[in-house]
Amino acid sequence: MEEKPKVVKSDKKxxxxxxxxxxxxxxxxxxxxxxxxxxxxxxxxxENICGEETETFLRRVRKQVxxxxxxxxxxxxxxxxPQNSPLFIFNIIKSFTSFEQELIKKIYNKLAxxxxxxxxxxxxxxxxxxxxxxxxxxxxxxxxNADLIKIHSAMKTSYNxxxxxxxxxxxxx
Length: 173
Prior knowledge:
68% of the residues lie in helices and 0% in strands. It is mostly helical and 173 residues long. The chain has a domain at 56-164. The N and C termini lie far apart (62 Å).
């Protein structure tokens, strides 16, 4: 049976600070060889959970990490299945190249795999598995992020082309 970490509570009135939160994270970092606080914070904004009382500290960190994954996954879904997407998405995706379309699928599949992994973590808590998930995402994130940057660049190029076109005399309603 895994030992439970102490309850982490950030109460600004009692003097709990981000530094205290970092110290608590660093205990888990050492125990499980996690990425640095700074890396996770820059990429997944884990400082947002500072101030939350929890006995499952790494679960809360993992949930913050998965928020970004979930957001990126839903954004990619808008490109892959734009049925209910904002109209500007249609203008963007119609000029995506086959390379960009394949890149979207590749990223989507990777993020969907993470979602499958964190489904298990939601139903079967294990501090060790939470740590393994955080490490796995952190290790794979630089490549995913680089691919997301490529997609953003294509989006921006496509959007700028559409925005610079002269408006047609069609109905705008």
